[in-house]
Design goal:
Number of helices: 5
Largest sheet: 3 strands, antiparallel
Strand content: 5-15%
Distance between the termini: 25 Å
Shape: elongated
Number of strands: 3
Oligomer: single chain
Length: 104
Amino acid sequence: MLTSVDTELIRVLADPLRLKIVTLLAQETLCTTHLVEETGAKQTNLSNHMKVLREAGVVDTEPCGRFIYYRLRPEVLEALAGQFAGLAQTARATAEANLKRSCP
């Protein structure tokens, strides 16, 4: 069983600020103001990171008056975790079968 991992999603989550945002959103739905306070990032910088997370499908938005709230989409992380679990399963089977390619 050959498993590939969503490299674009890994790239999105590899940024330390975006990973911090995802970690915060795993605990509660937050607006931009809360995220600025929690991360110390500037508003424009945070907005750019939120755009990347939205476009990658990691977060959903919810307008509330003049604020935008962000909610993490756990199914996206579960899918990525499943891809890694598949890789781990393949690696375990390979190690147990002692599979290796012969050198020429």
